[in-house]
């Protein structure tokens, strides 16, 4: 009697780097069109690069056919607080380059739920020019986003206090070009799911 044959399943072919890169390109396109936030993009891109199967890879592009949410069509490239207070949080459009001015005023800006411009996704960087005169600027970025600070302070201060977590693969670097005179610039990071009110987070800075 012939021995019984054991039919073993053929393993699915491994995901290639080209397939992972193609998935990330779809994410970049969706992010540049305002269909996902900076936080969502970084999470999905991380899953794409770590995917071992096509099923895993398919999950990162789910829901990309949805139209852009309300509030993401026009980038906010210039923010000014002159003898006033400016707050920017929730879902809004972050351009490749922007300017923040705080003159005898206060600017409080949360990037965690912002969508980013296609040019920023392509270049992997967002440049923000910050000018402070007798005022303050407080900035919150998602955890894992790299922040670089250039420039200086005269009779003022600039400080970045980021949570000690690994950089999120695929997120753009936020470069701050600052000039602070008799004022302060403070940068911190926080997870998107943090339940604290935005005002409380700003108060901690």
TrEMBL record:
Segments forming domain Cell wall-active antibiotics response LiaF-like C-terminal: 90-157
Pfam name, any one: LiaF-like_C
Start and end residues of each DUF1707 domain: 15-64
InterPro entries: DUF1707_SHOCT-like, LiaF-like_C
This protein's name: Cell wall-active antibiotics response 4TMS YvqF
């Amino acid at each position: 009697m012939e021995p019984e044959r054991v039919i073993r399943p053929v393993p699915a072919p491994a995901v290639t780097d080209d397939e992972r890169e193609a998935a990330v390109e779809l994410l970049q396109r969706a992010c540049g069109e305002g269909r996902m936030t900076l936080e969502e993009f970084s999470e999905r891109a991380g899953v794409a690069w770590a995917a071992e199967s096509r099923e895993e890879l398919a999950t990162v592009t789910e829901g990309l056919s949805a139209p852009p949410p309300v509030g993401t069509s026009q980038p906010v490239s210039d923010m000014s607080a002159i003898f006033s207070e400016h707050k920017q949080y929730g879902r809004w459009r972050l351009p490749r380059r922007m300017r923040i001015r705080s003159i005898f005023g206060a600017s409080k800006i949360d990037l965690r739920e912002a969508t980013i411009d296609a040019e920023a996704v392509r270049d992997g960087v967002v440049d923000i020019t910050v000018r402070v005169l007798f005022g303050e600027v407080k900035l919150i970025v998602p955890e894992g986003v790299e922040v670089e600070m250039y420039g200086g302070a005269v009779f003022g201060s600039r400080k970045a206090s980021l949570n000690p977590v690994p950089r999120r693969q695929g997120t753009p670097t936020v470069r701050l070009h600052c000039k602070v005179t008799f004022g302060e610039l403070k940068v911190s990071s926080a997870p998107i799911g943090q339940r604290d009110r935005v005002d409380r987070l700003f108060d901690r800075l």
